[in-house]
């Protein structure tokens, strides 16, 4: 499988503005994009950190998976995203190996990315996102 860099690290937050103000005022990192991703029922902000990014995730609905996560675990680290060249090929390879996938076909992510998740049970406790994007 042709894995690239850690594309981003997702952090679940209850209030995007308050969380952003920490990253901006304390660390001096500005978001390069803030976007609502309707399909995932959330709003995201992407903050660049030397070749990778922090993705803040604020749920926009009580039945969003991020809302459920915060309800159970509180705010905090939610997923790690690894960039791949060819997401269909990566998913086919994992499926052939019998790995438990959440998405067998890609969904729409932020910034035009195509994304798919591997179940935390398969990865020993980490929600893993595969992410294909044209450019960054
Ligand atoms: C915008 C986009 C982008 O980057 O472009 C994004 O990032 S979207 C990011 C937000 N979207 C997503 O996360 C979509 C994919 N996620 C999902 O489908 C769901 O959240 C699941 C991961 C399947 C969890 O579903 P649900 O909460 O209904 O199940 P559950 O609570 O019974 O959890 C099943 C088991 O997984 C664990 N679990 C749940 N969420 C976890 C997480 N984020 N990291 C690690 N473990 C996690 C639970 O503790 C539980 O463990 P035990 O079995 O040991 O009790
Ligand atoms: Co993500």
UniProtKB/TrEMBL annotation:
Molecular function in Gene Ontology: metal ion binding; methylmalonyl-CoA epimerase activity
Keywords: Coiled coil, Isomerase, Metal-binding
Database matches in SUPFAM superfamilies: Glyoxalase/Bleomycin resistance protein/Dihydroxybiphenyl dioxygenase
GO biological process: L-methylmalonyl-CoA metabolic process
EC numbers for this chain: 5.1.99.1
Keyword Cytoplasm (UniProt): no
Pfam family, one: Glyoxalase_4
Domain of life (superkingdom): Bacteria
NCBIfam families according to UniProt: metmalonyl_epim
Protein name, UniProt field: Methylmalonyl-CoA epimerase
The encoding gene: mce
């Amino acid at each position: 499988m042709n894995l690239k860099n850690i594309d981003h690290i997702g952090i679940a937050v209850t209030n995007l503005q308050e969380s952003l103000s920490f990253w901006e005022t304390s660390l001096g990192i500005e978001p390069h994009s803030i976007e609502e991703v309707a399909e995932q029922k959330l709003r995201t902000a992407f903050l660049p950190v030397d070749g990778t990014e922090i993705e803040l995730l604020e749920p926009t609905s009580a039945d969003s998976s991020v809302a459920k996560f915060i309800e159970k675990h509180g705010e905090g680290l939610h997923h790690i995203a690894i960039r791949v060249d060819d997401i269909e090929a990566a998913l086919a390879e994992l499926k052939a190996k019998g790995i438990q996938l959440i998405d067998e076909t890609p969904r729409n992510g932020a910034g035009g990315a195509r994304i798919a998740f591997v179940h935390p049970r398969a990865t020993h406790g980490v929600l893993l996102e595969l992410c294909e994007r044209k450019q960054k």
